Amino acid sequence: MTYRKLVASTTFWVALTILIFMALKSSPNSQLFPGADKFYHWLGFSILVFTAHIAFPKAPLRSLFIWTLIGAAAIEVLQSMTPGRTASLADMTVNIIGVLTGLTAIHLYGDAMGKPAQWRKAPRKRRRRRHRRTTNGVSASGGDAQ
């Protein structure tokens, strides 16, 4: 693993760990300003999607989108089970907006680097089948060649 890949992967896992810890700790985060909770949700998921793309550049963006939405929903469900925390549709909406912001940042980053992001895997090139040569009118499989 190259140094760049190691740093990218570590950054993603640290971001994921911080996001899960902050989302599931029993006391809510301190409010620096009104609506700070929504800002934290937005920022956390924006950073998570962006770092996931940097750590796993070959992963299709569609997969990142789906998996982060599943993770966001799972965190909201787990928050409803955590003492002192509640799940809310508003938080889930902000999570989705954060994911979309992260995907937008990926596109802007890709455009700046000259590497467009992929929404799906590139199609595989099909191999051309080679037909077995026939010798003396008999195919390699033993039947008559026509």
Automatic annotation (TrEMBL):
Keywords: Membrane, Transmembrane, Transmembrane helix. It comes from the Bacteria. InterPro entries: VanZ-like. The chain crosses the membrane at residues 39-56, 63-81, 93-110. Coiled coil: none annotated. This is VanZ-like domain-containing protein. Residues 121-134 have a biased composition (Basic residues). The keyword Membrane applies. Pfam families: VanZ (PF04892). Residues 36-108 form the VanZ-like domain. Residues 117-146 are annotated as: Disordered.
